[in-house]
Design goal:
Elements: E1 2-7, H1 10-14, H2 20-27, E2 32-37, E3 50-52, E4 60-62, H3 64-77, E5 82-92, H4 95-101, E6 106-111, H5 119-124, E7 128-131, H6 141-152, E8 185-186, E9 189-190, H7 193-196, H8 200-218
The protein binds 6-chloroguanine.
6-chloroguanine is lined by residues 86-88, 112, 130-133, 135-137, 139-140, 143.
């Protein structure tokens, strides 16, 4: 998979893509992430990428031309499955959306800043608008990093058996059950006997019960009961 991220702050995104799972995905050749500095596509002499908004009001708006030029150039080189705009007024990201995106070949992710982008870019270029939750970030970059992390770990061959995404919270619509490692007793608290029993069926059933119990307590909205 190839992901092109258009941003006015490429530095902010260097680090998350050069660590841990995403780094491994890139090294294995399963994921290619390109950070594109929108400033390189500025068309005026000051190389600006934003301007005052028509109608007045506080906050700058990202200009049409640099974004259009950048996306046109990318599209002239290959087909893109989606042109995603990261914005707090987009659709809230869910695991099921991530699963679908992880099957795509080429994605563009545009990170918004300030008051956002000129509406005409949304009309002409954007195919999907994504928010990562009901709070406002200063820019779309950190949200884009979250989206790419969530996608990257699903690419076949990125995770090994132990970390397999099949057993994630949310993949079966339930939160994960509690987990334990050594020692068997810590500050008077013992690991549940069933986990030490070696009885696979009982362990499976216990984990499933605990997953349901935890989901009912913390995220009853996930259980359509
Ligand atoms: Cl995608 N961008 C910004 N700026 N704020 C957000 C967001 C995105 N998702 C939640 N808050």
């Amino acid at each position: 998979m190839r992901i092109d991220i258009i941003t006015v702050q490429p530095d902010l995104l260097e680090s998350p893509f050069n660590h841990s799972i995403l780094k491994r995905a890139k090294q294995k050749g399963l994921l290619e992430v390109n950070l594109i500095n929108l400033r390189d596509y500025a068309t005026n002499k000051h190389r600006t990428t934003d301007d005052y908004q028509y109608g007045g009001g506080a906050g700058m708006v990202m200009l049409c031309e640099p974004i259009a030029k950048c996306i046109d150039e990318l599209k002239s080189e290959r087909h893109y499955d989606e042109v995603i705009y990261m914005t707090p007024d987009g659709e809230t990201l869910k695991q099921s959306d991530v699963n679908i995106l992880s099957l795509k070949q080429n994605l563009i992710i545009l990170c918004g800043h300030y008051k956002g982008i000129d509406e005409r870019i949304r009309e002409l270029y954007i195919t999907k608008e994504i928010s990562i939750g009901d709070y406002v970030l200063s820019g779309g970059e950190l949200a884009a990093a979250i989206l790419v992390d969530a996608i990257g770990r699903l690419l076949p061959g990125v995770l090994n058996d132990e970390t397999s995404a099949l057993f994630d919270s949310f993949q079966d619509g339930l939160l994960s059950p509690p987990v334990y490692t050594r020692p068997e007793e810590f500050k008077g608290l013992k690991v549940p006997d069933v986990l030490l029993s070696g009885h696979e069926k009982n362990i499976r059933e216990w984990r499933h019960e605990k997953a349901i119990e935890r989901t009912r307590q913390r995220r009853p909205d996930l259980l359509n009961e």
